[in-house]
Amino acid sequence: xxxxxxxxxxxxxEVLEHRMHTRTTDVRGEFYRDTTxxxxxSPFRRLKHKTQVFFAPSNDHICTRMEHVLHVASIxxxxxxxxxxxxELAWAIGMGHDLGHTPFGHVGERILxxxxxxxxxxxxEHELNSLRIVDFLADHGKGMNLTYAVRDGIACHNGERxxxxxxxxFIEKDLSAMTSRAEAIPATWEAAVVRFSDQIAYLGxxxxxxxxxxxxxxxxxxxxxxxxxxxxxxxxxNTLVNDIIDTSRPESGISxxxxxxxxxxxxxxxxxxxxxxxxxxxxYSKYFSRLLTLIVDYLQxxxxxxxxxxxxxxxxxxxx
Length: 320
Hints:
The protein is an all-alpha fold. It has one domain: Orthogonal Bundle (Hypothetical protein af1432). The chain is built from 14 helices and 2 strands. Strands 1-2 form a two-stranded antiparallel ribbon. It starts with 12 loop residues before the first helix and ends in a 5-residue tail after the last helix.
C-alpha cells in the first residue's frame, strides 16, 4: 500500500469497541470475538436454509445466504488488507450483515415490507432487522452484545445502494434510534468497505448462478462488462477488489474508478432486467406472499397470546 495513504478512523478505540454490557477481555480481541459470537449463533445457522436469489434450486452449487455472507466477509477482508485497515472488523461485519434478511431474497423483503405497511408499521428493512437480532433477539432475547463498530457496520451496509464513493461519517450514532437505511452512513472505513463488498459478492455470483440455471444467455452480457470486468465471477471479483484498492483515498473515500463504476452500473442494470425481474422469479412471488402471510399471521397469533413473555415461545411445539 502507498505509505502516503493512511486511513484512520475518526472515532476512538473506546467508542468502536464499546459493548452495551461490559465483558472481560480475552485472547481473541474484540472484533474477532464478535465474529465467533456470530458464527455460534442460531440466526447465523439459519442462513444455510435461506436462498440468495433463486428459490429451492435443485442444483447444490447455487448460492445460499450463508455462502453470500462468507463471500462478503472474505472480499471485505482482502480489500482491508490492501488498504491497511482492520481485517478482523471487516470480517465480523461481513459475517453479521445479513442475519436479519428475509427468506426468498429481496423478493421476500419487498413482500414483508408491504405486509408491515398494511399493518400500520413503517415497513421492513433487513439491515435494521439484522441490528435488532444482534442487539435484542438472539439468544432468547439477550442479544449478542457486539461492539459498536460491528453493530454500526451491520446497520449501515445497504448493499442495494450503488455509489461510486462512500466517505464514512466519524460520528457516534444512536443506532437504536435509526428508522431507515436511507440515513445510514458508516462510521468506519471498514464498514464502508463492507458496503462495497456486498455488491461485489452478488454482482458476479448472481450472474453465474443465472447462467448455471439457463435463465440468461452468457452471450447477452453487455460488452462494457465483458471488456472491463470479465465474464466469470472470479474475474469480476478480482477486478473490482483491485480497483477499489487502487482508487480509494482518505480524502475522497472508498471508491471505484470512473471506468469501472460505469461497468458496475451496466452489470447491475443487466442483472435487474435479466435476473431479478425475470419471469421465473416473478412467478414465485404469489407463492412467497402466501407463505410469508401464513408465517406472519401465525407469529402474530402467538404474540397476541403471550406478548413479550419468552417462556411460552420456547415451549411452542408448532413453530413453522
